[in-house]
Hints:
Blueprint: E1 7-13, H1 27-46, E2 49-60, E3 69-79, E4 83-94, E5 99-113, H2 131-160
Antiparallel strand pairs: 1-3, 2-5, 3-4, 4-5
Amino acid sequence: xxxxQHEVSFRFxxxxxxxxxxxxxxxxxxxxxxxxxxxxxxxxxxxxxCVTAAVSGIQFVAPILIxxxxxxxxxxxxxxRSSMHMAVDxxxxxxxxxxxxxxxxxxxxxxxxxxxxGKPTTVPAWQPRDDREQQLQQQxxxxxxxxxxxxxxxxxxxxxxx
Length: 162
């Protein structure tokens, strides 16, 4: 039901097939998990097909090891007319020691579409419920400003290469 579920969590064990030559989960796999959780949260909130528009500020804070219990948590932190900003955190937990840590964090923007090849469609408005959510929304708005400045830079570079 659109506008009701603003958070999604995935949980699974990091497997040997997820790691790089150094024995740690490689960044591409982590980014895949982030995209999947963000997509699930965007669809749950909007009730529509969604596409990834941007990933901002991805920080690989600490490694994820084989056998770690991985939790990927995505939550809505801001909505526009057809866009949704998600805070996505990846947490890793060593089950043998009962130690956990933040491994990766970022903000994603999804756009809801009226069909897979369709046009943007409106999404339910999200409102912060407490001070922490208010802070997250303010961070999302700052990232929007930075993103607009980045678009101008990309446009200028594209014009130079012609």
